[in-house]
């Protein structure tokens, strides 16, 4: 049966058509639509009739209630009028009473003030009388030996003095009271010391109550710390057992009866096993932790209100008292390990010292971190400022080393870089230079991932040891180490230049000698002294250095990206914006513990309380601001964590490109070095019977040699086309292969253009060009043009000008230069050719 929902008809946006369509959708598929609509109309009509009937009945009932409601309204209105009249009468009477009673109330107030003053004076007189009586009887109370009664007497005397104020008759009483309190304290402290040593709870509590009664709680704290500090200090001081090691001394817990409870006493056992400081320290921490756990339990019974501050104070005083000795033992341990280690070379010893010192520091720091976490777990319920004091004291021996972290890291990394073996780059005899070049380049390429591992380890050390608070020093150190490393690579390039006989200083001297006739052909190039096989090996070895630049670029880029990501994570962990805000908020407080506590209780959770880097930055707001600025810059995509490294890498790439180019062009330079001085250019035509041409139909040997070399360039550049400079196929698919082919083509064109430029410079140096020389030069250029065409290169404009002008007879050359159709040629080169051929163009 269909149910009609009446709520939809009450909607202001009711749409009859939409309602009817929706009702039709709910019909059974087998029911006819007309029957469904008829039933729906019937139901709506019945519902409408029911509503009308109900409305009529309710209207009739409402009409019957209207007269009764009217009568009730009239009655309520009469009552309200009567009540208003009564309230008005009462208010009039109150006003009259207020005027007549004001004077009486004021008089009563004055009487009450006088009464209060009289009572205060009476109390003061009683206190003065009591103070006089207490002062007279105090010696008798002391003589009784009841220290609790003495404390109550002195407390009452102080209360009376505070009430009396500055009364002349009692002016010296305050000083006497101080003397009496000191006297009582002197009687209590020895007993308290004995009670603490013997761990007598009831005696300790009674003596504690006495000191608190006279306001000397600080004396209790000092005495407790002094007594409990001695066993811990004894363990630390008795650990020295001789020249090279430390003796492990265990703290044994002996149970002794105290009233109805069992208490622990501390004693030092003898165990002279020689162990190193780094092995001994965890045992010391374990013993201290065990002792503090016992103290925590005992103090919670003896001092239930103060144990949460007494035991942390004991630990703070203990760590503060051994901080200087702790630091000295770290340095001594570094020296002892070095003196017992093997290498005798000074450089290796320096590296060993730095590595041991920084490694030892991190190992000890990690042990201290474990101890700090255990302490935080033990002291989990203490106040935040007390926890800050405890953590600061625990880590205080390392503060000086953290300040010098940058220097320590720089020394370690510098020695690691210096230890890299580049000894492949030493001069060898002719015939082995190709092997020497290949070995040197291999060592250079292998050094790059090694240095990357050095740098990554340095980042881990910085985060592990300083928590990232010394990131500024780390970045400066990494930048400096990269400068040293790239400088060492550049030195290797200089060595390779000498091995490959492309040292520019030597080359420039020899070129000048050729021009002035002081150097012979035999001295033109060292490459003339080596075989083709060695020359090929040298070229292949030098091409491998391109892999060095590729590896250096990629490794540097990846490392810097990783470093920036590390800096961003560090910024999130340290929460520096809130840290700086809390530092500013705490500017009015004194002491690092108070300001740091504000941060630790700021809703960051307990995990950050372990981060000693945050505690350090609270104490160093300037460093915190610089670090915040640095980490903010790390979010910029254009930020360089290593400020100078990218420029150094680019400079190294340029030097590598210069070396590769000079090696690839060296053979061409050697063949063309004296081309301008060849006698063929000024040779006259020889007379012969058959009137045959006196020039060679073939290109000159130097041009043929240069052309053959250029045609073999694709084969020599094959390692580059295979991917990288090492001859190994690069991973990454066709994109890398295409890049390698483009790189090889770029080098081929660069060398070919350089060869043509050298050849053109030699041609410009020809002083006189005879007809025979012009014909030979034309044949040379024609051959060279075909070589360039085979390499898919265009003939340069200057060389094309030479070729065009040499094909014209001497008599027509001047007119040829002036023709408008030849304006595409190089006019300066054309005039130079005319000068060579002794043709006037004016």
Reading side by side through the largest sheet, how are the strands ordered? 1-4
Annotation, overall tally of beta strands: 4
Number of helices: 29
Q: Separation of termini?
A: 120 Å
What value does the average pLDDT take?
77
Model regions low in confidence, pLDDT < 50 over at least 5 residues: 241-273, 341-354, 506-527, 590-595, 601-609, 724-733
Helix content estimate: over 70%
Shape from CA axes? flat
Name the beta content range.
Answer: under 5%
Q: Give a quick account of the main beta sheet: strands, pairing sense, barrel closure.
A: 2 strands, antiparallel
* Domain count: 4
Oligomeric grouping of the chains: single chain
CA-atom Rg in angstroms: 51 Å
Determine the structural class based on helices, strands and strand pairing. Answer: mainly alpha
Describe this protein's structure:
It holds the Pfam family COG7. Its main location: Golgi. It is a peripheral membrane protein. The chain folds into 4 domains: 6-115, no CATH class; 195-249 and 258-391, no CATH class; 404-646, no CATH class; 672-836, no CATH class. Helix content is 72%, strand content 2%. It has 29 helices and 4 strands. It has helices at 16-25, 33-144, 147-164, 173-198, 201-213, 217-237, 277-302, 307-339, 346-378, 384-395, 399-403, 405-418, 433-466, 471-499, 504-516, 532-543, 545-574, 576-585, 592-600, 612-619, 621-633, 645-671, 701-716, 718-722, 734-764, 771-790, 797-806, 813-818, 827-836; strands at 246-247, 251-258, 261-268, 274-275. The strands form 2 sheets. It has a two-stranded antiparallel ribbon with strand order 1-4. Helix 7 (277-302) packs parallel to helix 9 and helix 14 (471-499) packs parallel to helix 22. The longest helix has 112 residues, at 33-144.
